Amino acid sequence: MSTAVEDERGGASEVDAFAEKVMAAALGWVDLMAIHLGSQMGWYDALAKAGPMDAEELAVATGTSRRYAQEWLEQQSAAGILEVDDPAGPRVRLAAGAAEVLTDRGSLSYLEPLARMFAASGAQMPRLVEAYRSGSGVSWEEFGDHARQSQADMNRPWFDALPEVIRSVDGLHALLSRPGARIADIGSGAGWSSLALAHAYPQAAVDGFDVDDASIEMSRENAAAAGLGGRVRFERADAADLAAHGPFDVIFAFECLHDMPHPVDVLAAARDAVAPGGAVVVMDEAAAETFSPDAGALERLLYGFSLFICLPDGLSHPGSAGTGTVMRHDTLREYAREAGWGDVEIIVPEFGLWRIYALT
What we know:
Layout: H1 4-41, H2 43-50, H3 55-62, H4 66-78, E1 82-86, E2 91-94, H5 98-103, H6 112-123, H7 125-134, H8 140-166, H9 172-177, E3 182-186, H10 192-200, E4 205-210, H11 213-225, E5 232-236, E6 248-254, H12 263-273, E7 274-285, H13 297-314, H14 329-338, E8 344-351, E9 354-359
Pfam family, one: Methyltransf_31
Keywords: Methyltransferase, Transferase
Protein name: Methyltransferase domain-containing protein
């Protein structure tokens, strides 16, 4: 039998452990928001380009405040993101690996957009609190440019790598390689997935569809800059109306179905819009097969996206399915069968944060 003193010590130990957990979470938030500040000020880019700098040099190079730069440099050094080059100065440099993760926009390890995304969500916290209380939502438009652009920037390196993955999928590469093949990219966002497909399959025509006006404008600008404006078209359209634009040899839904308020309608429209012998492919988050309280880091990150961005966006539409980011295989299979499909096959088990499925 435990004594009262032992019970008190055990309780105190549990309290201390949980307090440390909360403290670690608070420090993680501080680091992430400091990353956002540093990125917005251009401080990481300046350090990556010029090497060790002190606060005065950094402020002059970026046209920012020396006093804020000084505080930020000290915080970043304490967090291990920067390393002190000259303690007497101090002059600091980016820690090993930090430049690629925070400034290399073409790297698969580029994670600075995470800070932007959660900063955009934090700016809407009063609206999120209201939505959680009432059951309403916060739309993608309300989250604003930081959310839109950070999603595009984080996904772009992976979309650039996507054609190499597609080539390994039996049948899919052959469909896309047909002369005159028509490709639909629903939920096309900034257009990077469409442009990657157009580069990889020069005999195909690609149509991107999205309901966000700002994303359509951004995607058209990106297509023009890439010299693909004649072969890649972007149109503001609801994916549930896809059949009116078909038929298509291949229809893709990259990292968007879980956001859609009416996924069954979209999958039914894809079934009507795909040409005979064509393919419908969904890439969505690689959620575990079932819920587990012992979830790993990826699952916890997906819940973060869902709590603060994807689920509120989905629920901002009347009659929403309210899927959220953690869309498991069984959920997608249920949606597909309701839409008239037979089953959902995993064709790429793991691709970054995602998994790739084919509807059959």
